[in-house]
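thought: user wants a sequence for this fold. calling inverse folding tool.
action: design(structure=
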């Protein structure tokens, strides 16, 4: 009986380093989006976009009072995901291909409100280009709710592990920063 055994050193195949950061950071922030006679609620997302990162802001009501906006409590989610803008609100969704899929991006959303908190108009802009125009046609309350008391910011693949969010209230309004 002949037996042959061959042995060799194992070869490990590794994946190359990703050209994009692979981190996730998030924060939850309590806020009030409506006060008596408020005329406008506005937010801006500004960041360096890549074809693979995700930056989003969610608004909703912290129903269980745990200080976090859970997925089932989100009423409006907007942001950037893998090269395009997206929005989800009241069982409606929209997406918009940007003029360029990477580089410095800024999404500016403005909700004009009546003095009682009802939405009057909505607009969203990628620089000078309108996005999510179909969401403006939603019925009142479909995209904005004066009861929102929590915002959640999430970023995936935007930088090193030292990146972080913070929020700031100023006399001009409420700001979120992604550093």
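)
observation: tool returned 179 residues.
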């Amino acid at each position: 009986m002949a037996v042959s055994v061959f042995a060799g050193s194992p070869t490990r195949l590794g994946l190359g380093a990703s050209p994009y950061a692979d981190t996730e950071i998030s924060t939850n922030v309590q806020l009030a989006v409506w006060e008596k006679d408020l005329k406008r609620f506005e937010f801006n997302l500004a960041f360096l976009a890549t074809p693979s990162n995700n930056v989003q802001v969610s608004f909703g009501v912290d129903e269980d009072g745990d200080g976090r906006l859970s997925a089932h409590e989100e009423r409006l989610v907007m942001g950037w995901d893998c090269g395009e803008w997206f929005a989800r609100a009241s069982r409606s969704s929209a997406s918009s291909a940007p003029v360029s899929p990477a580089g410095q991006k800024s999404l500016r959303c403005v909700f004009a409100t009546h003095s009682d908190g009802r939405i009057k108009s909505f607009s969203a802009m990628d620089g000078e280009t309108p996005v999510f125009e179909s969401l403006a046609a939603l019925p009142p309350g479909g995209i904005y709710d004066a009861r929102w008391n929590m915002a959640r910011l999430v970023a995936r693949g935007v930088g090193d592990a030292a990146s972080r969010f913070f929020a700031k209230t100023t006399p001009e309004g409420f700001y979120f920063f992604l550093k």
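thought: summarizing for user.
answer: Here is the designed sequence. The chain has one domain: 24-178.
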